[in-house]
Specification:
- This protein is α/β, with parallel strands linked by helices and 335 residues long.
- It has 2 domains: 17-270, Rossmann fold (3-Layer(aba) Sandwich); 285-334, no CATH class.
- It has helices at residues 2-16, 30-45, 82-93, 105-109, 111-126, 129-137, 151-158, 174-180, 202-233, 240-243, 287-293, 315-327; strands at 20-24, 49-55, 72-76, 142-145, 164-168, 250-252, 268-270, 298-301, 331-334.
- The strands form 2 sheets. It has a 7-stranded parallel β-sheet with strand order 3-2-1-4-5-6-7, with helices on both faces. Strands 8-9 form a two-stranded parallel ribbon.
- It starts with a helix and ends with a strand.
- It is an enzyme of class 2 (transferase).
């Protein structure tokens, strides 16, 4: 009987061992950085050995990793052309307030500029043979990335990590749905770049299809440009279009009850709210903010995300918000 217990105990020890995990997350777009940072810290806090590879695309985000407990971070400095292309991207971002976002061609028009940014940084990562050998020698059990930029999939294939999962900072991405075979249903599911709801006229449904097609084209174009760089540097490497569908799971940042109803399947798992800290110690406000929020009975936080920056907002838009604030003296507006 005792001889049977020993192998069982050894098996339990094996199951209790932490996994070695490689997280690939670009420093680009704070909401994306925060989501992947939350996943990294969650895994680290659970006892796993997490290494984060962070190619620096936007140098303004370099010190904003959004991670606290994860300490093993490898940063790849910007590529030779990245600084130039990101400056051009900044100019594009200033147009977010005045551009016609309902036009499905809006994002597609900027596909070459966006792809140049990611392809430049992809080259910087994949041409570092010493880094690739170092990562390969780690023998990671699992890799994680967000397929917003797909260079990670060529990296995973190059260093022979077969088990990987995807994490989305949103509910869905058109090119991911297309690549993994997720049903689209554009007659009632708004595309990622769409401005419509779940109830659409015939004309709006047609436009929604175009939004999906253009969204798929935009990120697919970025991914294909990454792959051109990858196969130039690493002969025989597989494309993201082949590697991404092999993801064991697709974790999405959405709460189904608060989202548009949409077709899905079992390997798509919602983890909405993972980046929100709910521990008691995290709910205690610093003294500064406690005083500000205590000035009036009601408070309103104004934020438009990391893409539509308030600093780029037209003056007339800002004046409109200020006029609304003047009409509500009992409310503290935080902008």
């Amino acid at each position: 009987m005792r001889l049977c217990i020993v192998p069982l105990l050894l098996a339990c020890i094996g199951l209790a061992e932490p996994y070695k995990i490689l997280m690939y997350t670009n420093l680009f777009g704070h909401s994306h950085i925060k989501m992947l940072g939350a996943v990294s810290d969650t895994l680290t806090d659970a006892g796993h050995d997490v290494t984060v590879l962070m190619p620096v695309i936007d140098f303004k985000q370099e010190d904003k990793t959004a991670m606290k407990s994860t300490k093993k971070i490898i940063k790849v400095p910007p590529g030779q052309d990245t600084s130039t292309t990101i400056a051009a991207m900044d100019k594009f971002m200033t147009q977010m307030w005045t551009s016609d976002n309902s036009n499905p061609l809006f994002m597609a028009f900027h596909a070459p500029a966006m792809s140049a940014i990611f392809a430049s940084q992809c080259r910087k990562v994949l041409e570092d043979k010493e880094l690739l050998e170092r990562l390969k020698a780690e023998n990671f059990d699992l890799a994680i990335t967000e397929p917003f930029d797909t260079c990670a999939y060529e990296l995973f294939d190059a260093i022979k990590i077969r088990a990987h999962v995807a994490v989305l900072a949103c509910s869905r991405l058109d090119h991911v749905s297309s690549t993994i075979g997720q049903p689209i249903a554009p007659s009632y599911v708004p595309g990622t770049q769409s401005t419509y709801g779940e109830k659409m006229t015939i004309g709006q449904k047609f436009m929604n299809i175009l939004h999906f097609v253009m969204g798929d084209f935009l990120f697919g174009y970025i991914g294909d440009e990454d792959y051109k760089v990858a196969k130039e540097l690493i002969p025989g490497v597989r494309s993201w279009r082949e590697v991404l569908p092999e993801a064991s799971y697709i974790f999405t940042n959405h709460i189904p009850l608060m989202d548009f109803p949409a077709p899905t399947f079992d390997k798509i798992i919602p983890i909405g709210g993972i980046s929100v800290k709910t521990q008691r110690k995290s709910l205690q406000l610093p003294e500064k903010w406690d005083k500000i929020l205590g000035l009036r009975k009601k408070n309103v936080l104004i934020s438009f995300g990391s893409n539509a920056r308030s600093i780029d907002m037209p003056v007339e838009f800002k004046k409109s918000i200020l006029k609304v604030a003047e009409l509500l003296p009992e409310v503290t507006f935080i902008w």
